[in-house]
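[job 0417] fold request received: Beta-D-glucoside glucohydrolase
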Amino acid sequence: MPSCPQRRVSRSRTLARWCAAALLASLPAWQAQAADPERPWLDTSRSFEERAAALVSQMTLEEKAAQMQNDSPAIERLGLPAYDWWNEALHGVARAGAATVFPQAIGMAATFDVPLMDEVSKTISDEARAKHHEFLRKGEHGRYQGLTFWSPNINIFRDPRWGRGQETYGEDPHLTARLGVSFVKGLQGDDPKYRKLDATAKHYAVHSGPEADRHTFDAHPSKRDLYDTYLPAFEALVKDADVAAVMGAYNRVYGESASASTFLTGKILRGAWGYQGYVLSDCWAVVDIWENHKIVATPEEAAALAVKNGTELDCGETYAPSIPVAVRKGLLGEAEVDAALTKLMTARMRLGMFDPPEQVRWAQIPYSVNQAPAHDALARKVAQESIVLLKNDGVLPLSKEIKRLAVIGPTADDTMSLLGNYYGTPADPVTVLRGLREALPDTEVVYARGADLVEGRDDPAATPLVEPQYLRPQAGSGERGLRGEYFRNKELSGEPVLVRVDAQIGFRWDRGSPTDNLLARGEAGPDNAVPNDGFSIRWIGQLLPPASGRYRLEAGANDGFRLYLDGKLLLDRWENAERLRADSVELELEGGRAYDLRLEYYENDRDASVRLAWDLPGAKPTFDEALDLARSADAVVFVGGLTGDVEGEEMTVNFPGFSGGDRTDIRLPDTQRKLLEALHATGKPVVLVLTTGSALGVDWAKQHLPAILVAWYPGQRGGNAVADVLFGDVSPAGRLPVTFYKAEETLPAFDDYAMAGRTYRYFEGEPLYPFGHGLSYTRFEHAGLKLDRDVVAADGQVRATLTVRNSGERAGDEVVQAYLRPLAPVPGRALKELRAFERIHLAPGESRELSFVFTPERDLRRYDEAAQAYVVDPGGYAVDVGASSADIRASASFEVRAP
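[job 0417] inference complete; emitting structure tokens
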């Protein structure tokens, strides 16, 4: 490689160009602008589209193809830095280290609170922007470090068995649309020139399981179901929120790949809706086109098909090698490649990536906003609002004067029960057990896990961690915990970049990213931070057993770990692991003696976790221990349900009642049902708190237990929020965004995408708990419902007004829900549909007048398959207003006049 001159000398034009390119590539794009004003793509006086086209025109075909994959490489001669489009922000910035973790999307939907969602999405985008610029300052351009976020998931949660339903806003198109629009607007910001972030509507458009079949399945819903159920939320995000990106799905729809569809993308998205943003595939969905769906025979044919049908960005590895081949074979024109890439580069321009940061409003957000105290408080507020009180026979709220409370259940002290999936690393997650203890400092709160989450699950998180009082970093030390030495390699070699005392060894870093966590504590500077992957830690100190006897000492990690006691190697699992796994050893230890202890750990890539745990001598079987604690307590709080470890995205590990991340049984797992029944038999009042991302058939609990709460996956302050509700500091007002079916309900076949018999809109049976259901600690009256007209044209509007009064003795929130239904049922049409809602806060005795405006063309349209268009049927319609889809407090009717 030639060297560049330090001063002006006669050099060849080629070398001069190389030197200029080398200089530019070492600078941010906005600095390169000053270095070379002749580069038109850096001229901020031009439009983003002009600048993008100018940049694309300078690329070779191979360079263009590489830029159309999510991990776009740098082009040094053009001063273009590397960029990875892949980022996640489902309920907080995910997989990028420390970030505020809000309740999972299904929990946020349960708030029925659009203004609150406005706050959440603005907060997430603040943290995302701040983290991006911090990564840039460190010269990092990797995955989960950019500004293009693949959220929200607005698929309709049509079936409770779908493992990814937790990522959605529930089963209703209107609720999904209103929350989705709010989320997108908050992510993308309100600047007239620069987008704050790019949001992505996914997975377009008929996609909701089964997970195991998603790479081969072909969905054929009726056109009525397509237009009335599966498309409306996507249409709203395109038309009402100007969403930057749309992600296709893995499966086929009507025989076409959803990530390369002339119908979905060409006719509807680009055609009928006039969408101008960019489209990307789900990850490796382009591979599915030829390898699994077998629509075409080769990768180059798949790439050509996807680009021609409107998919500009490939999350995967197909476009870079295959697009040049497709062009040379005549399958794809280079002009089509240019048009697609220009759209992508325009998006990056609009995010301000190529402009001086002082010109970009969003670049001024300081890194200190990340996990700010106000964000932590907001996470608690959202969790409070998300909690749904399904049943209360008067046992709630519990008295804070209670003397002894037993907290039992497999998710009571499990951090994963707070997180769901697609999450970041919370600084200080509060489990339900911890939240209850913090709420009751003068009460004896005893705990037992009691049962495993599901039958046959080897749960390395079940054994209690070794507590700080039984650890010290060295002989004679008054500190408690172990000395941790953190290394920037997997071999524990060289000097540690960080040394500190860790009180307990129980860490879980999503996607293996402790870096921000350490930076946030001010313990490691940017040059010495532990990397996201490929690091190791050695903990040394002494173990102090409290009594003599037989102990079971356990270590667990993802990936490798080794445990030594008094210099003897006890456990050795020094290899990569796909998930957290544990090993243990039983041994006799003497009370009052100090044992030298060393735990070594390394992280290879992706998820990172490590823990040191034990069972003390004489520990009873967990089931019996739980019953003993219940008998000795004044009340029992059972915390159970599901976690993201058993329901989620395309899992390879299956358990009874679960398959590939989906469920085959909507009941509470057997292990938990048996324990619940035994706890109830003690005669003590048992309050059931469910952690879950989906509906559960808890028929037995509804019949026998005095109170049931749904906490969802409540985020980093979920434990505090549950305590706030249980002890009456907050009156619950969350509402079910999905129907809870009875355990023995015969549901339609999971792989049948017909809506008949599904969700409150089409289900004609009696649900266990209906859509929109949720109780309060106070009472509300709905009265005086009036319409401003009795007859309205299809293109007119009708206004409904009513008064809502808090007739109870304490302040609380009410979620007022307005449903429309035809007075004469129409075959194939929804029985009723949520078309307006508002969450309001009222003091005791306070009243408020609410009004909702309905437009028949928007709120009463249905798709007519014969006409191949939306129509509004003339005739009578009812406005039903109440506290749920089944709890209607007031009704009024009007007539839509035929044109």
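[job 0417] notes: The chain has five domains: 1-38, 83-369, 391-461+621-726, 500-615, 778-897. The domain at 500-615 is CATH 2.60.120.380 (Jelly Rolls).
[job 0417] exit 0
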